[in-house]
Here is the input.
Amino acid sequence: MLDPPLERTGDDRTTPENHVKVLGINALFHDPAAALVIDGETVAAAEEERFSRRKHGHRPVPFAAWELPELAARWCLEHAGLDVSDLDAVAYSFDPDLARPAEELGLDDPWDHLRQTYARRAPGFLASALPGLDPAAVRFVPHHVAHAASAGLASPHLEATDVLVLDGRGEAASHLAGRYDGGRLDVLCTQELPHSLGLLYETVTEHLGFLRSSDEYKVMALASYGKPRFLEELRQAVYTTGDGGFHTDPIDWPSLVKQRGAHEEWTADHADLAASVQHRLEEVLLELAGWLHVRTGNGALTLAGGVALNCVANSRLFADSAYDDVWVQPAAGDSGTALGGALHVARAEGDLTLPVTGADLGRGFSDADIEAWLTTARIRYERPADVAEEVAECLAGNGVVAWFQGRSEYGPRALGHRSLLAHPGHARNLERLNDVKGREQFRPVAPMVLAERAGAIFGRGPLPSPYMLFVHDVVPEWRDRIPAVVHVDGTARVQTVHAQTEPMVARMLEGFERRTGLPVVVNTSLNTAGRPMVDDPRDALECFGSAPVDLLAIGPFVVRRPEVD
Here is the structure.
């Protein structure tokens, strides 16, 4: 076990100040992002990929993810009307002084020494990218402390909550377990590398022919098609140690299942391996959560780190752990450490941080901005009396709609701002949408539903579920009515919608139900395979122009697909 990590500041300032402005930065492993916290409130947050159009910030090795989110950072400041000189601090979600050489940690990572050098020089790099920034304003926040803050300080549980962080790796660990009480983090356990549940899942992702540190969700989807017949072998290699930690011993993957090539068809063996790893992950998480609950007695658990994007495992924790509530921050992966770092520094400076109330923290565009884009594109558009009703009519006629409304989402889930929508009552629409997006046919699509209607259709899972980070059983009498959103195992990854926070989405859902009798609409992200989610109007027009989508609903305007003779 590692000693609890401590915050180190670039200039050793420790005097608390109220009403501070903190810019958070993630720029090391993957998913570079920026977030801005003012007076304890999160006012903006965005991933760099939405601006650069490089998914996850991936570049050729060795510069695979060492990308400063300078475009996202500049946008955050512009959105708030701030200059760099107005910032009180910049939080960087990695502390190079806590890092150790990869070989000492038992990791095979020939570029790790360059990564650490990059992190040490981050204050200078940031000052170059953001002219006017004093490098001494940069605070190094330990990676897992930033993850923890992104959950514990952003959650609705203001008084006391437990926090479990699990990902591939931080400086020298892969896991943190602790509790927040009055905004202060008490670290109870960390797990030293090379033992890592996140790296285990990344390795099997690569073995199954998918892209490491990117396609782990595909393994989770594939698992539903298999049986966990390799579970006993995995239990021998992956196990908890009784003190809050765990071991992930080396596994000879080819002895279990032959590695799949990236363009080869998957087989039952591949699905069984995915099911086995997924099942073992859930078992270990339950044991880790049980250990933490015994020591704190708290009723709420918050999760962060890339593993917390595993909505199947999250649902298992909600159903089978001793916690009354499980809450996951919508950008639980590394992009969320930009937010967590900023919240952590704001707390350290004396501000009372406020819960995050929605994922719509990215760019938005005025009606005039959108109309200017449409005019420049020389595309025919209309301004109907109510876009929501126009979309409901198209969906009821089994059209596919590209939906671009309000500020973009922070995190990997489309939550009614940058979405592809379709009719859930036609089973063929699952294949149709996967074809539109150019992705594997075993991938499910998700339902969105009004929060007050969800309980009658979806069971065994936390409701409301606004961030699409849990799966729910679809009750039997509804499975044949909404087949497009029912996964092979009878579950669905639900997004619940409240009319108070998402009035246009709610009106669209109500209009669709009046026409079809179904209170559910298919919702998947507005992008095509390998591309980041659509973010600005140009992205939306390019996606609409290149994909077989019937209607683009963009702000108060609609663009129709010209009929082909």
Summary: The chain has three domains: 8-151+334-348, 192-328, 367-560. The two ends are 68 Å apart (CA to CA). The chain is about 35% helix and 20% strand.
